[in-house]
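Q: I'm writing up a methods section and want to include an example of the input and output format. Could you take the sequence below and give the corresponding predicted structure tokens, formatted cleanly so I can copy it straight into the document?
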Amino acid sequence: MPAKYELISDDLRRQIATGELRPGDRIPGETALIERYRVSPPTLRQALAVLRTEGLLEAKHGIGTFVRAPRQKVRRDSARYQWEKDRVHLPEVERGATGSTERDTGVTVNDLQFSARYEIIESDERIAGVLEIPPGVRVLRRNYRTMLDHEGVPLNLSTSYLAYDLVAGNPNLLDDANEPWPGGTQHQLYTVGIEIDRIDETISTRPPTAAETEELDLSTGVSVFVVQKRTIDTTGRVVEFSDVILPGDRTELIFSTTLRRWEL
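A: Here is the clean output for your methods example:
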């Protein structure tokens, strides 16, 4: 049997879904909700906390709790990387018409704002270990942010690392003014003769840092997915490593695994 707080959160969630409560509406105060649902203050607060964690409500200190405007959902599945690889040999005009973000969200390139910042740094022990290079070797660090025009909040926080000597053969790959690059990272690597064999991702969750909470505009209680992505070429070499921070209230990770048939 559902707990009392779950019944309350279910009812408020239904009101939001049906439009009885609309984005920007202030929900009734704590006293009124306690009387309506005949529960204790801790039970009500638990129910509201669930909806804040889901990104449906936001509390404004000293004012009240409001229905939050829905954020763009992002659905990431493992097929996105094969989709990107299949596009490497397409003409530039086709590659530039859409990208992985548009695929994951269903929006168009005209709905998005994109920014990239490149820096050449010396690899620390962590990055050197992943890229299998000595510490202190030059690395191209790339910070990416993509947001919807009407939201003004990044869909994720992405930091990518490439060994400098690996990509220096194409000077265009060292200039962030060339972003967004038609075809993404796989096409960039293709221009220096690299074909991707596989992508390995390690996914965990944790509470966000204060900086992540502010930049992603997270409600209290919302966790983030942390994706550590290793891009491996056909020789078995790690050619790129990325840290990607995904907001837990607007991200779905979809996995589909095909199993081998039994041999009868």
